[in-house]
Amino acid sequence: MFARDKVFLLIVAASMALVPAIAFGQAPAFVTAWGGFGTGDGQFQGPTSVAVDGIGNVFVADPGDLNNPPTTNRIQKFSNTGGYLTQWGSTGNANGQFNQPVGVTVDGSGNVYVADYKNYRVQKFNSVGGYLAQWSTGANRPPSAVAVGPDGGTYTTDPVNSGVQRFTSTGSPLTPLGTPGQDFYSAIGVTVDALNFVYVVDTGNNRIAVYRGSTGELVMRWGGFNLPYALAVGPNGEIYIADTHGNNVVKFAPITTAAHAATWGAVKALYR
Question: What number of other Cβ atoms are within 10 A of residue 232's Cβ?
Answer without folding.
Answer: 16
